[in-house]
Specification:
- It is a single chain.
- The chain is mainly α and 224 residues long.
- The protein folds into 2 domains: 9-90, no CATH class; 118-224, 3 Solenoid (Pectate Lyase C-like).
- It contains 6 helices and no strands.
- α3 packs across α4 and α5 (92-112) packs across α6 (119-130).
- The two termini are 27 Å apart.
- The relative contact order is 0.09.
- The mean pLDDT is 85.
Length: 224
């Protein structure tokens, strides 16, 4: 159940925002279209050069043909398709943000409706965690999150009171101040987790892995 630390989507976004180029790419749809068009032109120009040289059996002047010949009626469809595909790729950041928004809405709706067990909610929580978004202060008490897989994530002050977390994976996770009172952590992986000031009073830790966990000021008044 252990996994190695990797750079997350959120961490990559922070690095990208330090670059003027990527900030412009993020903010301007027109710039993304212009960039996609330029890349499409270069790709088609490369294909044109290859076909031209191949047909001339790579003669010495095969690279001297007019680049602008690729801008023709016959190439409009190819140019449009390649440009559209590149715009789609450049829009991946926007789609990821929309995915996060939909995940948040699903989690909130499940809470408001009082849903105890929901596989879609578990998947939404895993998606947000894997992308590096913090879950500090979340209230997930009294629901079923069996086999939740969120290693290397952050849940400071989160409420898991009475939550079913059997075989959940919290490996190397920041759980500072989290509330696990009366939670079912049977078989859970808490290896190298930071449980500083966490409350595990009454939690079921049967077969749970706490190897390397930081238990500074952790409350561990377990049930007999």
């Amino acid at each position: 159940m252990t996994t190695s630390k990797r750079i997350t989507w959120y961490e990559r976004q922070k690095l990208r925002k330090s670059s003027p180029f990527f900030r412009l790419l993020e903010r301007s749809f027109g710039f993304r279209v212009l960039l996609a068009s330029a890349i499409a032109f270069l790709l088609l120009a490369g294909v044109n050069r290859f076909e031209n040289c191949y047909s001339r059996k790579y003669s010495s002047n095969c690279l001297s043909t007019n680049f602008w010949k690729i801008i023709s009626i016959s190439n409009v469809e190819s140019f449009s398709i390649v440009t559209a595909a590149l715009v789609y790729l450049l829009e991946s950041g926007k789609r990821k943000q929309q995915e996060h928004q939909e995940a948040l809405e699903l989690i909130m709706e499940a809470k408001e409706m009082g849903i105890v067990l929901g596989l879609a909610r578990i998947k939404a929580l895993e998606t947000l965690s894997q992308d590096g978004l913090w879950q500090d202060g979340w209230d997930l008490g009294g629901i079923n999150l069996e086999q939740l897989d969120v290693p290397h994530s952050r849940w400071r002050g989160a409420n898991f009171s009475r939550t079913v977390l059997r075989r959940a994976n919290f490996y190397h996770t920041d759980l500072t101040g989290a509330n696990f009172t009366d939670a079912d952590l049977t078989g859970a992986n808490l290896g190298f987790a930071d449980l500083t000031d966490a409350d595990l009073t009454g939690a079921n830790l049967t077969d749970a892995n706490l190897a390397g966990a930081n238990l500074t000021r952790t409350k561990l008044d377990l049930k007999p």
